[in-house]
Amino acid sequence: MNTRAVVFDEVSKFYGEVLGVNRVTLNIPPGITSLVGPNGSGKTTLMNLMTGLIHPDHGSISVRGISPRNPEHLMRVTGYATQYDAAPRWATGFSFVTTSLLLHGYGRAEAEERAWKALERLSLTDAANRKVAAYSKGMRQRVRLAQAIAHDPEILVLDEPLNGLDPLVRARTIDLFRTWAAQGRHVILSSHVLQEVDVISDQVVLIANGMIVAEGEIRNVREEIHEHPSQFILRCRDASRIAALLFNEDHITEIRLNEDQQGLLVMTRDREQFSRALSRIALGGHKIEGVIPADENVDALYEYLIGGK
C-alpha cells in the first residue's frame, strides 16, 4: 500500500437510507487536491471519512498508511478545518488554538508558542485576545485554519477554506497552501467554484450524487471540461426573438427560455463567435441587459458530466 497517499478502496457510506458516497475509489497523492461539487454531492462526507469522524459502511481507507479507525494516531498528522464554528462563545482566538494543542498532548508553554505562531501566519495576532464570537466571517475562517495548522500536520483537510476571505488574505492563504504542498504534504480542500480550483489545485476530484465523476491532474480534467459547451445566462426583454436569431448560429448547441420569458440559458461551442453574435444582435436593435457566464459554478458543469438536466 502507498503510505504517502490518501487511499479510498470501494468506499460507501449511507445515512440510514440516504446515500453519502457510493463505491468511491481514490488514490490522492501529496499536493493540493480539490474536491469539487455542488452542495449535497458528498464532499463533506469524504472529508469526514478521511479524518475518522465517520466510518464507511463498506470498503477501506488509508491516510498515509494510517487507518481512520486509529484516531489517536491520525489526529497527530491531520488538521481539519470545517465550515462550522467550533470555538466556544467565551474563547478568544488564542485560547481556542491553545486548547486544541493541549488536547494534542503539548505542554502549556509549547502549546501557547505554537498557537501564537499559527495566528501570526494567518495575520490574526492583533485579534488574538478578542473573543472568536466577535470575529468577522473571514476572521472566523482564519482562526479555524490556524487551529488546523498549529500542530504542523502532514495532511490538511479544509472545507471551503477560502469562503469569506478578502482578496489580500485569500492570496496569502493560497500561498500558505502552496508552501505546505511543496513540502510534500497533503492539502485537501473542498470548493464549488471552478475558477478557484483551476488557480490553486494540482489535482481535482469532481463528485456528484455521492459518486466520482472525474479525477486527476487539473490540466487533464480541464480538457475534459472544455470538451463541453460553455453556458451563458442572458437577461433580455425580447427573449423569444433573440433565441430565434441565436439558433441560426452554427456554434450554438442549445437554448432554454426562462419561465418568465425575460431571459435565456445559451450553450455554445465557441465563446468568441458567441460574443460576436451578441454584438450583431445588439446592433440590430435588440436590447440585451446582461450576460453572465454560468460555468464558474459547477452546478452547470454537472449537467454535462453526469447527463443531468
Structure explained in plain terms:
- This protein is α/β, with parallel strands linked by helices and 309 residues long.
- It has eleven helices and 13 strands.
- 37% of the residues lie in helices and 28% in strands.
- It has a six-stranded mixed beta sheet, with helices on both faces.
- A hairpin with a 2-residue loop joins strand 1 (6-15) and strand 2 (18-28).
- The longest helix has 16 residues, at 167-182.
- The mean pLDDT is 86.
How would you sum up this structure in a few lines?
The chain has helices at residues 43-50, 71-77, 93-103, 108-121, 137-149, 167-182, 194-200, 218-226, 239-246, 271-283, 298-305; strands spanning 6-15, 18-28, 31-36, 58-63, 78-81, 155-159, 186-191, 203-208, 211-217, 230-236, 252-257, 263-268, 288-293. The protein is an alpha/beta fold and 309 residues long.
Number of domains: 2
Radius of gyration from the CA trace?
A: 23 Å
Low-confidence stretches: none
Look at the structure and give the CATH class of the largest domain.
Alpha Beta
Strand order of the largest sheet: 5-6-7-3-8-9
Shape: globular
Please bin the fraction of helical residues: 25-40%
Mean pLDDT: 86
**What does the largest sheet look like?**
6 strands, mixed
Amount of beta strand? 25-35%
Elements, N to C (H/E):
EEEHEHEHHHEHEHEEHEHEEHEH
> Helical segment tally?
11
Q: Examine the coordinates and then state which fold CATH places here, giving the name of the CATH topology of the largest domain.
A: Rossmann fold
